[in-house]
């Protein structure tokens, strides 16, 4: 009769078991190679990295740290925004300003110059001249660039404060019996023997050994004096559970041993061990410390698979370290630590395992839990702040000075080497002043026209006279148009006395409209909608 799996071996004629390093999958009734991560995980369970002056419920700093991971994210984002802003301003300088000051490019460049909030009184000036405030496009570009750099560096500084504003200080001191008696902790030990066995193979789990064998402090006691113990069948094998509530482990060394024996068609063999030890204060159950991991072929040997079986015991060594957390109102906590794994009898060759399975002397698997309570010293833990308000303000002021200094140096170099940049503010102001003057002049013409009539404007026209900018034409009584050459550009003569008509006559004159309006621009180029227009009146 053959075995059901290709990775199984036969012993004693009719019995089958898995080969070295293989584990029986009861669902598919096949032997699979046992693979697991042998990394030992340790977590103190003590939260000390949250800022005390911010509510944790409002600001989730753990999610911020997981999202950012490092300060490089803030620095990279700052560099992207900075280069984008400089490229945008560099692109705008190649756009034409125009003469009317109404183009979108002029408006963008004008508003950039208004953003010159850092260097408006620190531009290039000739000697022996009074310092005056002047806002330029280059100054606005560098002002915003300096603020982008400052905000990015400020965000990186805040990240550093959140993650590294405190350091953990450990102070070790000697202890005596009253100090150890105050450590009342709840402990739980879970040891799983990874195998195809069950709790039916378990034997001799009832004895607790304390002290050192051969010395005067050596004692043997029932395991029930330490705490509750049980065995539970899991998908990976039998799990031994030891619980101690409000226990005081004053003894330096604890030994708890058990063994598994052969049963028909269920030999005592394992491919590894899995453990999970957790402790918490009996008074304050909020903080939990644990250590967990898996012990297999790669834990102590090379990567070749092994099977544990035989008389020599497998020892799992753990240490318990008493700690007092001064930063958590004097919390007294026992930290579990994984110390070592001493393997017992094991096999790497299939033939050797087959021989062991057929021998009655090797039909056993021994395991021992060794706990060493480090009672000679107590570690006192406290947090010290390395980033006070004075140092924070000093770092913040240093970042601001660096950002302003970098771009101030670039501004001075640009205006020193390019003379055209020294007077670029006057170019923008002249264009804008010309546009504002034209807008004010158009408002004045409209006011005079509506108040005293069209004849009060004293304008010289190329073709006829009319009300300007309202799509109307003045129709004269004789029906002919006046053709005069304009001597001065759009000015009202206030030097000679005008006989102004009354409002009724002016309204009647300007109310007669015919046809359309043919407008043209005189002098500077104006917007047909917002500027004055000269109309030519065609006879009826």
Strand percentage lies at 25-35%
Query: How many strands, which pairing sense, and closed or not: the largest β-sheet?
Result: 9 strands, mixed
Q: What best-fitting shape do the alpha-carbon axes yield?
A: elongated
> Separation of termini?
125 Å
Question: Percent helix among the residues?
Answer: 25-40%
Number of helical elements: 10
SS elements, strand count: 21
What would you report as the Rg, rounded to the nearest angstrom? 46 Å
Overall pLDDT level: 76
Based on helices, strands and strand pairing, what is the structural class? alpha+beta
Protein name: Transmembrane protein
Organism: Prunus persica
Region (Disordered): 521-540
Keywords: Membrane, Transmembrane, Transmembrane helix
Structure description:
- Keywords: Membrane, Transmembrane, Transmembrane helix.
- Residues 521-540 are annotated as: Disordered.
- The chain crosses the membrane at residues 72-92, 138-162, 392-412.
- Helices cover 28% and strands 27% of the residues.
- It has 540 residues and is an alpha+beta fold.
- The protein folds into three domains: 36-47 and 172-383, no CATH class; 61-164 and 390-417, no CATH class; 453-540, no CATH class.
């Amino acid at each position: 009769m053959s075995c059901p799996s290709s990775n199984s071996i036969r012993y004693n004629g009719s019995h089958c078991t898995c080969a070295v390093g293989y584990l029986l999958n009861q669902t598919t009734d096949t032997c699979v190679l046992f693979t697991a991560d042998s990394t030992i995980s340790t977590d103190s369970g003590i939260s000390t990295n949250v800022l005390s002056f911010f509510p944790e419920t409002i600001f989730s700093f753990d999610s911020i740290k997981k999202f950012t991971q490092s300060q490089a994210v803030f620095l990279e984002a700052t560099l992207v925004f900075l280069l984008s802003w400089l490229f945008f301003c560099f692109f705008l300088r190649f756009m034409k300003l125009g003469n009317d000051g109404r183009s979108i490019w002029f408006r963008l460049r004008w508003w950039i110059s208004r953003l010159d909030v850092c260097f408006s009184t620190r531009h290039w000036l000739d000697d022996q001249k009074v310092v005056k405030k002047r806002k330029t496009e280059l100054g606005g570009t560098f002002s915003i660039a300096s603020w982008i750099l400052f905000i990015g560096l400020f965000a990186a500084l805040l990240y550093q404060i959140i993650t590294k504003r405190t350091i953990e200080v450990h102070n070790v001191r000697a202890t005596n019996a009253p100090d150890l008696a105050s450590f009342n902790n709840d402990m739980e030990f879970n040891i799983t023997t990874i195998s195809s066995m069950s709790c039916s193979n378990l034997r001799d789990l009832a004895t607790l050994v304390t002290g050192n064998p051969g010395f005067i402090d050596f004692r043997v006691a029932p395991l029930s004096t330490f705490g509750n113990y049980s065995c539970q069948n899991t998908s990976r094998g039998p799990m031994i559970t030891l619980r101690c509530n409000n226990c005081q482990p004053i003894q330096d060394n604890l030994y708890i041993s058990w063994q598994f024996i052969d049963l028909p068609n269920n030999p005592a063999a394992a491919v590894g061990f899995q453990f999970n030890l957790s402790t918490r204060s009996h008074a304050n159950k909020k903080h939990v410390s644990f250590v967990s991991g898996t012990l297999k072929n790669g834990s102590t040997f090379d990567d070749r698979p092994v099977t544990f079986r035989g008389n020599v015991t497998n020892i799992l060594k753990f240490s318990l370290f008493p700690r007092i957390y001064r930063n958590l109102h004097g919390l007294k906590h026992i930290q579990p630590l994984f110390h070592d794994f001493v393997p017992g009898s094991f096999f790497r060759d299939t033939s050797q395992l087959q021989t062991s399975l057929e021998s009655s002397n090797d039909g056993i698997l021994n395991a021992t839990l060794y706990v060493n309570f480090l009672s000679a010293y107590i570690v006192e833990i406290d947090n010290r702040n390395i980033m006070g308000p004075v140092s924070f303000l000093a770092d913040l002021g240093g970042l601001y000075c660096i950002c302003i200094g970098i771009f101030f140096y670039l501004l001075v170099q640009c205006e020193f080497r390019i003379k055209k940049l020294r007077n670029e503010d006057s170019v923008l102001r002249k264009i804008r002043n010309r546009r504002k003057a034209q807008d004010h002049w158009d408002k004045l013409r409209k006011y005079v026209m509506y108040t005293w009539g069209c004849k009060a404007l004293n304008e010289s026209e190329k073709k006829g006279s009319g009300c300007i900018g309202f799509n109307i034409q003045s129709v004269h009584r004789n029906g002919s148009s006046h053709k005069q050459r304009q001597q001065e550009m759009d000015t009202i003569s206030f030097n000679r006395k005008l006989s102004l008509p009354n409002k009724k006559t002016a309204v009647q004159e300007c109310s007669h409209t015919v046809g359309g309006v043919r407008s043209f621009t005189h002098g500077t180029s104006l917007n047909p909608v917002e500027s004055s227009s000269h109309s030519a009146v065609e006879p009826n």
